[in-house]
């Protein structure tokens, strides 16, 4: 595979900018990456690097879509552009746009409970996918060779990827599943209880002194250091401080190789991982769906993971 365009692609802000870019290479193929980030957040983005290195014919274009009515209007324009532009073969969503109402309204038939990616099939029809949840499970069970069975799983941050992970983990026979989020998740808890013993907590404070926790898997899906209801990071760090034992495992979903909270957890005695491994698995699943449109061979996962690792340092 040629490693094309090693530098970060500029962030796009409008349909007009995208049309102009696509017109420059009309025979190539495009995947839009929809997110709402600060300039610093876009600078930290890793996928805009490595997904522009896997093929000379694939352009992975980051698109800034703000929250609110302006962003809602832009989302609608982006979906219409995707439908009407054969060269656009996929749209990948980051927070806060995963599973948004405009996205779900595109489909009238059965769709996944959570949607993070759209990919066109061989007929040019858009197909919705949840890659986040299955990719986390695949990374955990196949790459790390671990099991969810008998674990008390605590998921902090249950929006976007967090909800997808919660849904998939509930089918993996955990001992208990705790969903921690400032937004009430009681309805999701009721749904997941059909498959797993599930409890909702507003903050980590409710679990800090829970002495029944056993074989803990703590997942930080907040995208930061786990702000509690008081605006600080004390709850998540206190949980790491309190439950220090050999059977504790911590995963922070942020994809960088080095994450401060992961390093802190290691000092507290936790086996700890960043989201690098899950991220590599997730985007490899997207890549394999795009390959038929490019008429190329699928890059082996090990080679793809090396590209992700290089961009995630």
What does this structure look like?
- The strands form 2 sheets. The chain has a 6-stranded parallel sheet, with helices on both faces.
- The protein is an alpha/beta fold and 313 residues long.
- The model is unreliable at 227-233 (pLDDT under 50).
- It has helices at 15-24, 39-44, 47-50, 69-84, 101-104, 132-143, 161-169, 186-192, 205-208, 234-242, 260-267, 276-294, 301-311; strands spanning 29-35, 58-64, 88-93, 117-120, 126-129, 152-156, 176-180, 198-201, 216-220, 249-252, 271-273.
- The chain has 2 domains: 15-130 and 279-311, Leucine Dehydrogenase, chain A, domain 1 (Rossmann fold, 3-Layer(aba) Sandwich), CATH 3.40.50; 133-274, Rossmann fold, CATH 3.40.50.
- The longest helix is centred in the last third of the chain and has 19 residues, at 276-294.
- The protein contains 13 helices and 11 strands.
- α6 (132-143) packs across α7 and α12 packs across α13.
- It is 38% helix and 17% strand.
The CATH architecture of the largest domain can be named as 3-Layer(aba) Sandwich
Strand order of the largest sheet: 8-7-6-9-10-11
Total separate domains: 2
Percent of residues in β-strands: 15-25%
Task: Report helical residue fraction.
Answer: 25-40%
Largest sheet: 6 strands, parallel
Q: Which radius of gyration do the C-alpha atoms yield?
A: 20 Å
Poorly predicted spans: 227-233
